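Lecture 7 notes: from sequence to structure.
We start with the chain below.
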Amino acid sequence: MMIPKLADLRQRLREAPRRIRATTNVALTSGLFWEMKAPGIREVIRVLGRAHQNPSAVYQIHAHNSPDKPAVIWRDQTISWFELNRRIDSLAHGLVARGLGRKEAVLSMMRNRPEHIVVQNAVARASGSAVAVSWRSTPTEFAYLAQNCAARFIVFEHDLWPVVEPAAKQLGLGRERLISVGGDVPGTTRLEDAHGKAVTLAVDDEAAAVVTYTSGTTGKPKGAVRKFPREMFVAALEFIAQTPMRTDDVHLVVCPLYHMTAYGFLTMSHLLGATAVILDDFKPETFLRAVQQHHATSTALVPTMLHRLTALPKEERDKFRSRSLRLIFCGGAALTGQLAADAMNAFGDIVYNFYGATETGLVTLAKPADLRDAPGTIGKSLPNNSIRLIGEDKTEVAPGEVGELYVKSDQLVAGYHENAAATKESMLAGYFSVGDLARVDAAGRYFIEGRKRDMVITGGVNVYPAEVEATIEEHPSVFEAAVIGVEDPEWGERVKAFVVLEKNKTLDEAELKAWLRERLATPKVPREYVFIDTLPRNPTGKVLKNDLRR
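Predicted structure tokens for the same chain:
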């Protein structure tokens, strides 16, 4: 039997060329190479020597390398790398002093604010499991999440106490384990008082984890458990290498930080030592004003936000200087070809459409040229990702055909928390699926055709909602659309469309149906239409089709 330490050494040697390539490539192209100083380099070498990469190490590296550079700007606060790392370290020590054990869960619920970064990384540094959930949760939803992750601490924004209190009582958590942010709550501890001395902690990188709950568009949310092996760090660098991200970026955070879109791109920006500007929420004018004020260079949006930006009249957009923007990441929901074109016509060819999921991490990336050449694409597979499109017979489909998208990569979650059945159901020979259907073209570009559970089978014909939705949205009077299947006694299911019109536009069912018949095969043309003011969406932009079915 091989000695474990020897086996680990051999594995590191096998990984070394890939790690060196990724690190060198990003260091040179992002400008980080020229920014690194001796203290930062020593810290990088120390971190890279670990078997696991604790995500909080990023803050240690830049605190040594660029202590006075702004790491976070929020409202009227500017927090340096040194100060941010100090807060992370002291809170980690304070949590351990209050009884946080290895792998134990700290549940947090906050709006967008710097404390989110501090809490997430302090928990990792203390070898715990960080669990961030939506501040829009109801008391019932929050209590379920708290019970499911067996929360040992709850950190919450002070005015959300009515949501937190029932769960705190059920779990029997005392004052020292209930930590309020931004204000006093009787019977709890202020975050400032939960900090301890800034001392070096014995970090167990292998124990640290992040548990992210799926958005729960159907059924109860599932907690996806993400660990941090060495390969995660390399995968992040390989993604960055596909983009023009730089160490001198000013990254504008507008999506909710409890969601992986916002937090993932914030983390990658911070990996490079960039400055993050956090906005409380998204409004088109507020976003553009922040771009102008901070000379923001990058951001991550969901398509709904991009819609709202492009819907602003040009004269309104032109009131703000936005030429500093050179990178808009977009994901979390389908980015139509028309919306991508509208956004690039408004801001330049700076839109990058990514596909990924809580469970899989980032899977594909479509660069601006891809979006121009192949509207609606989610792009090509990212380095070291392996994608399979699997048909109903559990074999791979041919190029151009639709199959369920399975991915294998270094970014896969360890599984669903306390849900082995759901984990097993999502896996196929080491590959993971979240139930999306896709096809791939001859150039290796992927296209999402909808969710497996949303596919409509009418008269024995498979109809993929994404194709029908995209075609409906090509009509000049249509703003957006969603397509579902409803029971039909003759056909099994019939296609039903929910349509939102552009402002001041009119369109009737007969006209739209006739227009679609010229562009879609007969089974794909919806038989039923509902014109509504807006589509129901969750906070990250996904259309809630179960609400439409109800």
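Points to note: The mean pLDDT is 90. The first strand starts at residue 70 and ends at 74.
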